[in-house]
Amino acid sequence: MTASGSGDPAGEARRLARWALIAVAVAGAALLAALGSGPLVLLSGIVGLAASAVGVWWFLAHRGPLRLLGAVLAVAAPLVTLYLYVVGGVWVNALVALGLWGVALSCARSALRRPEDERDALMRGEPAVPPRRPVLIMNPKSGGGKVERFRLVERAEALGARVILLDPSVPADVTGLAREAVAEGADLLGVAGGDGTQALVAEVAAEHDLPFLVISAGTRNHFAMDLGLDRTDPSRCLDALRDGEELRVDLGDVAGRPFVNTVSFGVYADVVQRPEYRDAKAGTALDALPDLLQGGEGDRLDALADSTPLTAQQALLVSNNPYAAPDPFGTVAARRTRLDGGELGVIGVRVDGAAQAAELAVLGNRATGLNVLTARRVEVGGGPGAGAVIPVAVDGEALTLPTPVVCTLRPRALRVLVPRGRPGSPVPPPPLDWRRLTRLAFPEEPGRSDPWRSRTS
Questions:
Q1: Distance (Å, rounded) from C-alpha 51 to C-alpha 270?
Q2: Distances 297 to 63, 310, 453 between C-alpha atoms, Å
Q3: How far is CA 277 from the centre of its chain?
Q4: For residue range 238-263, what is the model confidence (pLDDT) as tens digits?
Q5: What global pTM score does this model have?
Q6: 111 near 440, Cβ under 8 Å?
Q7: Which of 92, 85, 105, 82 is nearest to 19 (CA)?
Q8: Is beta strand 301-305 parallel, antiparallel or unpaired with respect to 262-266?
């Protein structure tokens, strides 16, 4: 929301910060005005929000009848609150306050956004020469049949690529196929498949310093998303074969096995190990959440992130570069703005009882039960009473590895060829910091206290 061509980004940010604070003040005034006509009705909104939060908590943290009751409460509480607002005649005030709060959030995030931060968050590619002998490995089952649906084989061959189509009925040695293609003279390796398959071929490409092509034909395509590729039409990834640019990105290593996204331990890894996970991911994860949220009695993990100890963790997520907005429950939608930072992202969850779990649900990444940090080396072992092996999920694939399990990163080891015309990965909004927003709106001494001027001078 910065004014294009204004020439004064600091002044524009200051104006937006002031509008945000004004919107908050007017929203508060609208609610106070409603107190005169119907204070009990207005206060019922607070009760309704609390009841809805309790319902969500019961739904996530329990099983059986209490989970069903939680679902009913989470839906019914807002509807009852809305009905009381309409009957009590304060719905206009509530609607105005809600709209102004939305304006305040929009202005605040725009004011706090700094152009230099956005520039630093973008990975920039170098011009690349089109490959002459590209070899692409395609899994026809991946993503529910995207290879056939988007005619990827025909389109790739029309661009001069040799396609190796996997047979879904026979276990495939993807790494062996990639090595064989290199021995036969391939000057690019690519994959149309899930992130686990992507990682195996990426390792071979990195070993031989060959470009690697990601085709977003998997189910969720986390790696493709963070590379800024088109996940709705995987055929657009093939444009890199004729008009591409090269990115240098990091490649993760866990106990000698490559990964491009995440390595998960504890509760999530236990979920992935379950046979029903492949066919019902959401349902299986939902069934396991009570063990985490209530501080269940499952095995705990001890880890060492560089020199920082993490003890008795119920869940641990190690990522190839940190997520922009760390969230133990939101990594499906979370993004990594960069894949070339040279550091692992680490998210550890330790919940000791319902009170700490409630804090985690309310405060998110500011909760005491959540550890968020970065490291170059992470060593994970079982806690007291754990066995010599632990379940591990590597890019969503279920494994069992001997302890200690060591995660490291190979900085900028992988050459990734991407289309010049890719959609790109949006920069996540900055975190809300009302103190900084206030200082930005009313700087004590322009030129010194103004955060914009100090960074742009």
A1: 31
A2: 16, 18, 52
A3: 20
A4: 999 999 999 999 999 999 999 999 99
A5: 0.76
A6: yes
A7: 105
A8: unpaired
